[in-house]
């Protein structure tokens, strides 16, 4: 009762006149935790703006100018800066100051701008030099929702995003709820999902949705569609649902062939998954442990019913068995591999997407050693190295559960590494798979590589396993031991062909070109020899020792599941035919730019593939590298063919004459554009690091080459 509110409040050199009645009402209703003097400046500015917001939160730049115009003097101060920082000036200079220092660095939210504030709202840490305290007043932002003060602009944006993720899009002082228009509906493959505005920011949103992973989702869908053709119905699990987009696509297109379970441990994500199910006219079957019974579907076997669970991914995979499991956590998947292989059914499929590319692509080698137990370095074939690193971890996890694997698909692109494997129960397949995890010897000079031989006996000179002789010509240690890595095949041709048929059937345009490249890479052939229709003898695709039905296969040519005796017979027959019908593709690839010769124009990539094929080697392009060549040719022969069909950079060098390679490394009688003669063949073989171009500096006339 003894508090007297003056009619004239002086704040920041601004004289604001407040009526008595209004000041008394404000005295009773104002909160004690917000006694800032600068709040009084906002009273006479705009009637539609909430009175409890800070002065630095405005809709338009003109509102800030109105605050300065409250003073009738010719020189006007900045309403957001103390007088020690910015002295009063004329209106045109003040406008420029407000626009450049406050408005341009503001944070926008639902039509409001949170401008940077230099007032003494935020306590400043004491400085050693007392005179600098005023000059270093803490610049900060005021949150429009919770009135917190934050220094950095990026932190302010993250702070607002966290409010949005929690659904706190309204101020604690306003009772009107924010409109639901902040939600965004995204459509992909005839499936609609509702996401939050910051859906593309991982770890900071409950509805993470990455449009760049559309190709990944299409490949996984094709793999599931192929499995659905083998046995129906199959139980499949999307262990990390987020928005539920992947599980919704499975249920919407495959219908009664699959029983979809979408899981997530975040309660907000589970709520959004249910809303997205209703958005796509799907019934929701809740987990038995949940207490909400109003949304449970009447018939759990309905083709339009999706089961939504809220559990840890490890827990749900320990409790139940599935035919198809997909793991797509944020980062590495190694923490969930043991649970995935524990209860997965025989001949089921486990697919995992790893997005920790910084460690897999050898940018953080210590992290790769910690997560995967694998020593890797940056090489020209680093993407395939990443895929083999993940498969090695998958193999060890499956072997611990007495299960073996066969790799059906391994893709490593810019944003992710995708691995799809088929599970084979039993200790024998587990032992066979574990034997394919071996170390790799990599030469750091010429980048030649070879898997270490099987066996436990130590060799006196491991460098003898490398085809190159860099160790003999270079001082010190020239090679490193990488691994352990998967040394087997990365693709199954029959499975990839069936995936391509499913992609054509469902109109997945983005996946079709990649699947064609993968089929050619699995067969190690060029694209012009590729055909989407397999010959009659290839209709019975052999995978994991089991014949699988394809669309062109007769009724007598595929296995009827459930007959153990016939399965064993076909498994034994398939093992005998495996070596005859399928030859594994060569491991790794060479980059044609990496091994090009200085001063020479290399041939076109497709022509170079033909040259290698005519020389008697298996050759294909690879999806890992657009300029990569997968071939079984040694690096020395690869460089020989590349040198033979390269042309000098300068035209004058062609006019002087042609030279040729020495006779001991000639490759075929293919007509060459330019023949090159090497005067010192021994020196050219020793210098594998690119200095071999110096040997070819002298050329001779054409008639001398005949001698």
Automatic annotation (TrEMBL):
Query: Which subcellular locations apply to this protein?
Result: Nucleus, Nucleolus
UniProt cross-references to InterPro entries, sorted A to Z: SAM-dependent_MTases_sf, Trm1, tRNA_met_Trm1_C, Znf_C2H2_type
Is the keyword Ubl conjugation assigned to this protein?
yes
Task: Give me the reactions it catalyses.
Answer: guanosine(27) in tRNA(Tyr) + 2 S-adenosyl-L-methionine = N(2)-dimethylguanosine(27) in tRNA(Tyr) + 2 S-adenosyl-L-homocysteine + 2 H(+)
Spell out where the chain crosses the membrane.
none
Q: Which PROSITE patterns match?
A: SAM_MT_TRM1 (PS51626), ZINC_FINGER_C2H2_1 (PS00028)
Q: Where is this region: Disordered?
A: 14-47
Write out the GO MF terms.
tRNA (guanine) methyltransferase activity; tRNA binding; zinc ion binding
GO CC annotations on file: nucleolus
State the UniProt keywords alphabetically: Isopeptide bond, Metal-binding, Methyltransferase, Nucleus, Phosphoprotein, RNA-binding, S-adenosyl-L-methionine, Transferase, tRNA processing, tRNA-binding, Ubl conjugation, Zinc, Zinc-finger
Q: Quick one: a GO biological-process term for this protein?
A: tRNA N2-guanine methylation
The protein, known as: tRNA (guanine(27)-N(2))-dimethyltransferase
């Amino acid at each position: 009762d003894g508090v007297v509110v003056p009619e004239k409040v002086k704040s920041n050199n601004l004289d604001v006149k407040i009526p008595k009645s209004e000041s008394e009402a404000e005295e009773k209703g104002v909160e004690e935790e917000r006694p800032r003097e600068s709040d009084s400046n906002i009273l006479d500015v705009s009637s539609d703006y909430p009175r409890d917001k800070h002065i630095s939160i405005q809709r338009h730049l003109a509102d800030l100018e109105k605050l300065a115009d409250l003073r009738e003097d010719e020189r006007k101060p900045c309403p957001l800066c103390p007088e020690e920082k910015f002295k009063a000036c004329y209106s045109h200079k003040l406008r420029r100051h407000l626009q450049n220092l406050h408005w341009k660095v503001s944070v926008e939210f639902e039509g409001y701008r949170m401008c940077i504030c230099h007032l003494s709202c935020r306590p400043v840490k004491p400085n050693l030099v007392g005179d600098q305290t005023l000059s270093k007043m803490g610049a900060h932002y005021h949150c429009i929702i919770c009135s917190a003060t934050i220094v950095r602009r990026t932190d302010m944006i993250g702070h607002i995003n966290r409010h949005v993720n929690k659904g706190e899009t309204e101020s604690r002082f306003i009772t009107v709820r924010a409109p639901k228009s902040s939600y965004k509906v995204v459509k992909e493959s005839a499936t609609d999902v509702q996401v939050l505005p910051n859906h593309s920011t991982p770890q900071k949103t409950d509805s993470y949705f990455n449009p760049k992973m559309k190709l990944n989702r299409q490949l996984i869908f094709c793999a599931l569609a192929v499995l659905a053709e083998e046995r129906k119905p199959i139980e499949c699990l999307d262990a990390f649902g987020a928005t539920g987009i992947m599980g919704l696509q499975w249920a919407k297109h495959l219908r009664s062939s699959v029983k979809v379970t979408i899981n997530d441990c975040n309660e907000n994500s589970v709520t959004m998954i249910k809303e997205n199910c209703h958005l796509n006219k799907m019934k929701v079957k809740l987990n038995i442990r949940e207490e909400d019974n109003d949304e449970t579907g009447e018939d759990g076997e309905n083709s339009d019913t999706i089961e939504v669970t809220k559990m840890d991914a490890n827990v749900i995979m320990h409790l139940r068995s599935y035919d198809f499991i997909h793991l797509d956590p944020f980062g590495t998947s190694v923490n969930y591999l043991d649970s995935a292989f524990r209860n997965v059914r025989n001949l089921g499929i486990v697919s995992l997407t790893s997005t920790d590319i910084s460690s897999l692509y050898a940018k953080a080698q210590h992290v790769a050693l910690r997560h995967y137990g694998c020593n890797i370095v940056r090489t020209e074939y680093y993407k395939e190295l990443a895929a083999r690193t993940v498969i090695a971890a998958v193999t060890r996890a499956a072997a611990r559960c007495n299960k073996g694997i066969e790799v059906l698909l391994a893709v490593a692109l810019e944003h992710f590494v995708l691995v799809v494997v088929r599970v084979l129960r039993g200790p024998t397949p587990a032992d066979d798979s574990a034997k394919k995890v071996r170390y790799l010897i990599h030469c750091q000079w010429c980048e030649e590589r070879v898997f270490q031989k099987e066996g436990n006996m130590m060799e006196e000179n491991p460098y003898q396993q490398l085809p190159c002789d860099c160790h003999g010509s270079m001082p010190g240690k020239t090679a490193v031991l990488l691994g352990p890595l998967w040394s087997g095949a990365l693709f199954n041709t029959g499975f990839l062909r069936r995936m391509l048929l499913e992609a054509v059937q469902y109109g997945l345009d983005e996946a079709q070109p990649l699947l064609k490249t993968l089929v050619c890479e699995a067969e190690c052939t060029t694209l012009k020899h590729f055909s989407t229709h397999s010959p009659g003898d290839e209709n019975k695709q052999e995978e994991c020792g089991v014949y699988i039905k394809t669309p062109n296969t007769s009724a007598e040519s595929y296995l009827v599941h459930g007959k153990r005796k016939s399965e064993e017979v076909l498994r034994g027959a398939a093992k005998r035919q495996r070596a005859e019908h399928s030859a594994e593709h060569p491991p790794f690839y060479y980059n044609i730019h990496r091994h090009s010769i200085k001063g020479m124009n290399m041939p076109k990539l497709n022509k170079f593939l033909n040259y290698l094929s005519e020389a008697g080697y298996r050759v294909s392009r690879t999806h890992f590298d657009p300029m990569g060549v997968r071939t079984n040719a040694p690096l020395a022969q690869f460089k020989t063919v590349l040198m033979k069909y390269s042309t000098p950079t300068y035209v004058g060098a062609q006019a002087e004459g042609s030279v040729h390679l020495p006779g001991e490394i000639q490759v075929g009688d293919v007509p060459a554009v330019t023949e090159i003669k090497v005067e010192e063949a021994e020196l050219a073989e020793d210098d594998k690091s690119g200095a071999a171009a110096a040997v070819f500096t002298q050329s001779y006339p054409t008639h001398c080459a005949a001698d």
